[in-house]
Amino acid sequence: xRLPSMGPHATVSIMAIYLDxxxxxxxxxxxxxxxxxxxxxxxxxxxxxxxxRGGISAARIVLEARxxxxxxxxxxxxxxxxxxxxxxxxxxxxxxxxxxxxxxVITTAMEHxxxxxxxxxxxxxxxxxxxxxxxxxxxxPPRDIFAAIRPNTGLIAVTHCSNVTGTIQDVAAIGAAAQxxxxxxxxxxxxxxxxxxxxxxxxxxxxxxxxxxKGLMGPxxxxxxxxxxxxxxxxxxxxxxxxxxASLYQPETLPERFESGTQNTPxxxxxxxxxxxxxxxxxxxxxxxxxxLVGQLIAGLLPIAxxxxxxxxxxxxxxxxxxxxxxxxxxxxxxxxxDNDHEIAVRTGxxxxxxxxxxxxxxxxxxxxxxxGWFNTESEIAAFVEAIExxxxxxx
Length: 396
Ligand SMILES: Cc1ncc(COP(=O)(O)O)c(C=O)c1O
Fold this sequence. Notes:
With 396 residues, the protein is of the alpha/beta class. The chain has helices at residues 30-42, 53-72, 87-98, 113-124, 142-147, 171-181, 265-281, 283-301, 331-342, 354-360, 378-395, and strands spanning 17-18, 81-84, 104-108, 128-132, 153-159, 185-188, 207-211, 223-227, 307-309, 322-326, 344-345, 347-349, 367-370.
């Protein structure tokens, strides 16, 4: 692992090789640790509250982070980007804040539970949901989404990059057709934000939900939702916003309409540093590095007898996620051996996306999921492949 230079307070990972960046990225860039520490020690104030220096400095950090994120995703008005504490919260706000009984939503079989569960909840409250099936490679043909459009379709909701197979959906094509039909598009960018270029205007994305702690390299407990002009959401949480304090009504203006309560300024300061790091390298460069590691990984795994790799064929778009199974071995056993004998961290099981496994034929045991990040190296991938070869030999 290419560890960023360790500061005096940095802890050394207990994992020799961390390949679980789809869960949360690790390590973080050095600037992220520093920014969190500094904000906790020096930014004594609640953003937008109180007329003292601490509050003003906290508000500045939050504004800078909002603007840095808006810039990265081609969002022209940063006030339409609201901070949440996770992609899950962003998706809940987008779905439950928008949908009403009688509305119809089109989504896919590849969704993470943070999209699927709020949609299921909405369906129990009278929202109709169409789950468009994916092929065995995890790809959902855009034409199947268009074919599901009805007069009452009020939303198309898709994940950009599958957290099970790494399959990248054709969001730009879906967005163009959705726009033509006058239907808003919600994109779950949990596995793509910071790792795959995203531009909300050219991809016609009306709501973009993302975590701050994966490809954007920020701390856990960060996330955001972009809400395009014209999309009216009901806040899921109301309370103090530091504005319009004389009124008992929640402000109508963004971002405060959706940001009740004291914000986690230290984590947002860390997210700002993460976004600046991503911007300094460039999302294209990150994508190329991760694609090279994924290519090396798949090439190393494919010749192993009894091992099956899932997801798109070579040459098709893929994020930095590779799932595989090994004949006669439960994925959890492989994960245990990797952790215990080789000090390698991966994730095993269903990865909170059961229907994605039904699509690719790996339900209910799931898969072994490997997700390289910016700080991983070729030699770590080689060590991982060697560990899997050993595990495969030991099985015989
Ligand atoms: C595709 C996808 N969507 C949503 C989420 C939820 O993200 P968060 O943990 O930030 O809520 C994840 C997390 O793994 C994910 O992979």
